Amino acid sequence: MLTNELLDMKYRAQRALAAQSGDDLQAYAHNVHLIVREVEQQLGLKFHYLRAANKTVSSPATHLQSSNQKPAA
Fold first, then answer.
1. Residue 24 within any structural domain of the chain
2. Would residue 72 count as lying in a domain?
3. Domain residue limits at 24
4. Residue 73 placed within a domain
5. Whole-angstrom distance, CA of residue 2 vs CA of residue 44
6. Is 8 exposed, middle or buried (0-12, 13-18, 19+ CB in 10 A)?
7. Does residue 71 fall inside a structural domain?
8. What are the pLDDT tens digits along the chain (73 aa)?
9. Could you write out the DSSP letters of every residue in 36-47?
10. How many domains does the chain have?
11. Cα distance between residue 52 and residue 20, in whole Å
């Protein structure tokens, strides 16, 4: 894999955040959000997040079960 100093710093930060959150995705996202808030305050910026659609995504197996179809063998 090709790498450079900036990518190395990014990977170190990601590993540190993962270790801090105990590999819990929600805790990881929360920690990143706190860092973003801190950077916003320090730099006088406001980041805007993209909102997710209000749809729930179901797995194909769940979809098939809910429509009374059998999955292909």
1. yes
2. no
3. 5-66
4. no
5. 34
6. exposed
7. no
8. 677 999 999 999 999 999 999 989 999 999 999 999 999 999 999 998 888 777 665 555 544 444 455 555 5
9. HHHHHHHHT---
10. 1
11. 26
